[in-house]
Amino acid sequence: MGYTKGLHELGDGCYAYLQPDGSWGWSNAGLVVGDGASLLVDTLFDLKLTAEMLDAMQHATRVAPIATAVNTHANGDHCYGNQLLDGAEIIASAATAHEMTEVPPAMLAALNSAEGMVGELFRHFFGAFQFDGIELRLPTRTFEGRLEVEVGGRVVELIEVGPAHTMGDTIAHVPDAKTVYTGDILFIGGTPIVWAGPLSNWVAACDLMLGMDVETVVPGHGPLTDKAGVAAVRDYLAFVDEGAAARHAAGLDAWEAARDLATEIGAREEFRGWSEFGRITVNVDTAYRNLDAGYATPNVVEQFRRMAELEGFVPG
Question: What is the CATH number of the domain that holds 67?
């Protein structure tokens, strides 16, 4: 199955909506169709993109309307389109629901329209998206740990695996289709970014999926994969966790450690060519924060500036 934009039928009433190239903001979503009702996994980064996705799903949802939606985590590219889900119950982990309030769409709209270096920096990452006019619709139901959701006679298992990528990541497992929707616990072809951590939690989430009876894996970004994709992300995270700890013990500051690790990662065949490799700066910050409670993480503008600089983009 090719990596092309749009709705892809996976079989057994499961679908994936893919958005190449999977870089910043170009996220995936999923649809699980039951008897007379469907469950949507995630909305998209703005209203135009979400409306386009919902239109593409109409041939399935016309006879099985979306009764339930799941937000896998709080990043806007997985929840900012919620307001278009008329009448649907929206489920997320309690940690995700709380975190969704911390970065409202208006904040990204302001950053994208800012003057000077800040605006140039954020337009570099998010200039393709329209955040004006979005009213964030929060989950109507929350859970902790695990929750089984019935959708048209089928069971979807929601499993909280955060904090990892964010404070409250959830994966959605469809046992009867041997399919799992991972949210941003998986980036395929792109570098994972660990906003919350610890990295060991994310490694554990990958180990959990590797032990599940699944054949089709729908990542939060990038093409469809299988357990080989899960293993690759796990190996990257374990490598970064170990490498950051060694550099912390050697007394390197986080920015120096990130640049050093980036060079080492670029020389490794299994990780070479992954896009957004500048995210190593955030990943090392998170590792340092979990090693040292007194470590002060740079502000978000500085984090994005460092990622851009490492990838060769210097605003202003």
Answer: 3.60.15.10
